[in-house]
Amino acid sequence: IKRPFAMTILFFDWLFLLMLICFFRKIVNGYIVMDLNFRDYCLHYFTVICCCFHFLNRESFKASSMINISSKLFWSNIKTFWSFVDISAVIITLLATLGNIFWGEWLQTHYEDLWRIILAVATGLLWMKLISFLKVVNRALATFVLSIIQIARDILWFLLILLIMIIAFTQMFYTVLPPAVLNKDGDFGDNLDIWEYYLQIYIIVLGEFDRQTFANTFSVVLFFFYSFGVVIIMLNVLIAIVGDSYEKSMVRSENLFVIARIMVIGELVAMEKLLKPSHDESDETCTDQIKNTSSRWVS
């Protein structure tokens, strides 16, 4: 990855990604302040579209390089979370930019809330794409980024139990403290429904609650069991699970770092051979090593 060709490609990827994020946010900010004059934002639109096409081209090179290494590796890579982030970030950003160019005023008038959500999702995906790029920089960063995915997998069953407990206590509180009792002072407005109860019960997990909310004895008892079972026990279990998962990730840090880099190395080697084909034995040796290593990981 330290070869001049690879360093050049990675440098321009880094540069184009930063430009894409900055100029896309300029466009979004213009949409927010109702200033979508194409003449004023012509440079921004042009830069974002060029960067999007650059990354779409890079994704096509990545696909061809993975197929060149191993078809099994290609299918295993295309199904990963980070591949979804890389591809969807570029596509949604490109569509959002084109939407602002051709239908900006119409979208503001008819689908403003939905379009703001799409712009927000595109922004989030772009920043996640930046994280995906950073994970190949060094071992510590790769371990940290990939351990987050491992932690998310390990806490799935915990989240299921937590969700069940929140639903159960919310329905019990809704029964004991109906809207007529809970909102007798009008603190929650005119539209107090079951979803507001779910939100309030979740806020208790974060440590925020009002003693005056629990208007009768049984609601206080429910609050005691809820705070003890969810806030104290479940959150400590969560800390233990996260700590154990991160410790396992640290043990596997070298493998995680190599896994993060193998895709980039294979892509760059295939791209270099495609753009300037040669019969250098070192290239053939590198490609063979990638094939052998990737086949072991995929299997």
UniProtKB/TrEMBL annotation:
Residue ranges of the Polycystin cation channel PKD1/PKD2 domain? 112-247
Tell me the Pfam families matching this sequence: PKD_channel
InterPro entries the record matches: PKD1_2_channel (IPR013122), TRPV (IPR024862)
- Which positions, given as ranges, span the membrane? 12-32, 81-102, 114-134, 155-174, 218-242
Tell me where it resides: Membrane
Per UniProt, what is the membrane topology? Multi-pass membrane protein
- Which GO biological process entries does UniProt record here? calcium ion import across plasma membrane
**UniProt keyword terms in alphabetical order:** Membrane, Repeat, Transmembrane, Transmembrane helix
GO CC annotation: plasma membrane
GO molecular-function terms, A-Z:
monoatomic ion channel activity
Protein name from the UniProt record: Polycystin cation channel PKD1/PKD2 domain-containing protein
Provenance organism: Corethron hystrix
